[in-house]
From TrEMBL:
This is Uncharacterized protein. It comes from the Eukaryota.
Amino acid sequence: MKCTRICAEKAWKTIW
C-alpha cells in the first residue's frame, strides 16, 4: 500500500 504525504502526516500525528 503506497501512502501519500497526507497519509504519512496522519500516521505521524498518531505517533504523537
